[in-house]
Amino acid sequence: MTPQEAHTQAMSCADDGDRARRAGDLDGARAHYARGLALEREAALAEHTQPWRGMLLRSAAWLAVNAGELEEALRLARLGLEDADVPERTRAELQEVVDEATTALRHLTIRAQSPDRLT
């Protein structure tokens, strides 16, 4: 499968995830996002030219956030940030993923440490 084909299928999975989330099916949404993540990660790692690689890594990282795979989101976003040739706008969007995933991981850690203190 070419990176473009994988990306197209990943975006279809993301659309399915969005529909499932709007319908209240959060487990189904996460499953669709996880399938999209696998495809988008494949596309990103197969692509070697900018701006496409950075954009695919950004997309894969957001799919990871939506799938609840926060550590993978951080890994993918940081991989994109390591490339000096990533366009500035994509770099800013990758940093947003890092910030979002880091915040979510902090909240999960706090909840795990003191579940009776949260409502």
What report would you give on this structure?
The chain is built from 5 helices and no strands. It starts with a helix and ends in a 6-residue tail after the last helix. Helix 2 (26-46) packs antiparallel against helix 3 (52-67). It has one domain (3-117): Serine Threonine Protein Phosphatase 5, Tetratricopeptide repeat, CATH 1.25.40. The chain has 119 residues and is an all-alpha fold. The model has no long low-confidence stretch (mean pLDDT 93). The chain has helices at residues 3-22, 26-46, 52-67, 70-82, 88-113.
* Inertia-based shape: flat
End-to-end CA span: 46 Å
CATH topology: Serine Threonine Protein Phosphatase 5, Tetratricopeptide repeat
Number of domains: 1
The averaged pLDDT comes out at 93
Structural class by sheet pairing and helices: mainly alpha
Low-confidence stretches: none
Mind describing the biggest β-sheet?
none
What's the gyration radius in Å? Answer: 15 Å
> Total number of β-strand segments?
0
CATH architecture designation: Alpha Horseshoe
Number of helices, counting only DSSP H or I runs of 4 residues or more: 5
User: Helix and strand succession?
Assistant: HHHHH
β-strand amount: under 5%
Helix content: over 70%
User: What is the CATH class designation?
Assistant: Mainly Alpha
